[in-house]
Amino acid sequence: MDTILILIQLNDGYVRTYADQHYGRIRGKNPVTGVDPAIIFLIVFGCLVGGFFIICIFGTLILGVFDNGTRCTRRSFRNREFNNLSPL
């Protein structure tokens, strides 16, 4: 019975694991920076996803401008050819 109580007391407190000893504390805040790793992940992931969407939006706008420009030039060439036709 005493061993069960000792195990319960050990599990209630923070027990250092092999990974904690060799790689630093994994759970909770980083003792050096005092920041939760999940917060850092969310900030970095948010910047990557946000940057991707910004690039997609600007890429769509740029391609739309070029597409509109080529349509206008094709239309002007077509109008010139139509105006230069001699009547039969």
UniProtKB/TrEMBL annotation:
Transmembrane feature ranges: 38-66
Keywords associated with the record: Membrane, Transmembrane, Transmembrane helix
Protein name: Uncharacterized protein
Source organism per UniProt: Rotaria magnacalcarata
